[in-house]
Specification:
Elements (H helix, E strand, L loop, with lengths): L2 H11 L4 H8 L3 H10 L4 H12 L8 H10 L5 H8 L3 H10 L6 H10 L7 H8 L1
Length: 130
């Protein structure tokens, strides 16, 4: 996502301050300033902003819940999961090995899950219930 698109999204959501935006995304205000300097955001931000805009609940970040999320979304390898968020397979492997996930994943995962279901939000609930 280009940074100008990210700023447009922030205005639409009423997120004027970096600290408030960073808190919603699960990152730091300094990270937002770094994106501003680069003029782009990481791939996962597209998913996280979608989830926030749709009012999704954050994913509880445990090995079990993230593994369940992967299965629901047909992501059967670390590589497939890494590709969704713009990371390397080794990074995803480390998340699972440590049992510790980046905070931003709590919103990015639900945002990815709903990407094809925006026209029928009931689909997401049904998908999560299974």
């Amino acid at each position: 996502m280009e940074y100008c698109d990210f700023e447009r999204w922030r205005r639409q959501e009423g997120l004027r301050f970096d600290t408030k935006t960073a808190d919603k995304l699960g990152t730091s205000a300094q990270t937002l300033r770094n994106w501003r300097g680069k003029g782009r955001t990481p791939l996962w931000v597209d998913h996280a902003t979608r989830a926030i805009s749709c009012g999704c609940e954050p994913l509880v970040l445990t090995v079990t819940t993230v593994k369940d999320w992967q299965i629901r979304n047909g992501l059967d390898t670390y590589e497939a999961t890494a590709k969704v968020f713009g990371y390397k397979r080794q990074a995803v492997h480390q998340w699972f090995s440590r049992g510790s996930f980046p905070r931003w994943l709590a919103m990015a995962a639900p945002g990815y899950e709903i990407k094809d279901h925006l026209s029928d939000p009931g689909n997401v609930s049904a998908k999560r219930a299974s």
